[in-house]
């Protein structure tokens, strides 16, 4: 059965190295998870290995992507060689991407072996496990945050009610103080008036005598 993990893979030629004079160019291939390039590994292949893979695939498949033709790169270090290698890098990269983009080809054992896709499957399993772990971690943090927000909302509600009650009590205290002050003032006036009346009465009594 098709492996769903394989649909998430990408492959490309990212560079090359040339051994000592007379040796063939070694191409550096990067196999990565789509959209997550740090989960990747690099393998090295020579052109003849590409050619062998292509011939093996031709025995079982039609309409294969085009493999860059064989050819000479010219003198080492020459401008001609640099142009040749750049063109071949582009061609081999396009060839790899075409193989990976076709489910029937990327599931082929020859392609899997060429790209060491067993390692890729292990990579994808680890990535999947990491994604689940991260999801659960974020979910736990979100739940904790939601609970903290609810608690803060409850505390804010309690604080608002306490502040409202304090305001009511302060208003009542202010009203009581004002009333007491008014009553005290009225009482003082009454006492003063009574004292005046007493003085008047005393004065009247003295006159009569």
UniProtKB/TrEMBL annotation:
Domain of life per record: Eukaryota
Q: Which residues form a coiled coil?
A: 145-179
Sorted alphabetically, which Pfam families does this protein's record hold? PX
Q: Which UniProt keywords apply?
A: Coiled coil
Its protein name is: PX domain-containing protein
Q: Where is the PX domain?
A: 1-122
What are the leading ranks of the lineage? Eukaryota, Haptista, Haptophyta, Prymnesiophyceae, Coccolithales
Query: Which InterPro entries does the annotation name?
Result: PX_dom, PX_dom_sf
């Amino acid at each position: 059965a098709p492996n769903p993990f394989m649909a998430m893979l990408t492959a490309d030629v990212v560079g090359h190295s040339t051994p000592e004079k007379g040796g063939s160019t070694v191409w550096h291939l990067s196999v990565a998870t789509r959209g997550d390039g740090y989960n990747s590994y690099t393998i090295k292949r020579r052109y003849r290995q590409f050619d062998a893979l292509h011939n093996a695939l031709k025995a079982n498949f039609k309409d294969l992507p085009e493999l860059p033709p064989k050819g000479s790169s010219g003198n080492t270090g020459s401008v001609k060689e640099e142009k040749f290698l750049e063109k071949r890098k582009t061609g081999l990269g396009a060839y790899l991407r075409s193989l990976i983009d076709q489910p029937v080809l990327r599931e082929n054992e020859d392609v899997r072996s060429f790209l060491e896709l067993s390692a890729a499957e292990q990579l994808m399993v680890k990535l999947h496990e990491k994604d689940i772990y991260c999801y659960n971690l974020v979910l736990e943090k979100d739940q904790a945050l939601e609970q903290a927000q609810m608690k803060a909302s409850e505390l804010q509600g309690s604080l608002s009610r306490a502040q409202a009650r304090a305001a009511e009590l302060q208003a009542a205290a202010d009203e009581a103080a004002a009333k007491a002050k008014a009553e005290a003032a009225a009482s003082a006036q009454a006492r003063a008036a009574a004292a005046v009346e007493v003085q008047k009465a005393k004065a009247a009594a003295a006159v009569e005598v």
